[in-house]
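Slide 14.
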Amino acid sequence: MSAPVKYRNTRIEKFKSIQLVFLSLIVVFFIGCNDDDDGPSEFDFPLEGSTLAMADIAGNWTATSAEFQIVGDPGSFVEIVGQGGSVTLNIQSNGRFTSIISFPGAAPEQFSGQLGFSGNQLVLLDDVDEPGDEAFIDITLTPQDELLLSGVLEFDDGTGSFVPTNVNLSMIR
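Slide 15: predicted structure.
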């Protein structure tokens, strides 16, 4: 009589194991398909703005002037090209970008991410940021093929804290 009980327990244990696997799959499915209502889940800005398109600004750019100033701190102003630094920017037609900023006396910093447009502003999302943390930059392409960018970006102040910084760049191809 003990054999049938043991046989039934084994069947129940197998059924519970199958049920557990099935329930786990359902949970994984719902977690994977769950919409994130906390904010945008992807970079969703077009490659064309109201006056410019990514194709207009694609290419390799070098700064002729690069001004940086911590917001609210007039004493922090620095124009790095005039002091021996540099800023380069590579923009691909799909909106991917890479920028290298070399402050005088410091190691170069490289940034990459995605660009898009919102009306007449350039939208920048660095690869280390999440969608929703985009920066909006004023952009002008002059008839002389000079790219002018200005806006507020956040930079590490050297202590690991990020501070809002006014940036004004004049760039040529």
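Speaker note: Residues 15 and 21 are 10 Å apart (CA to CA).
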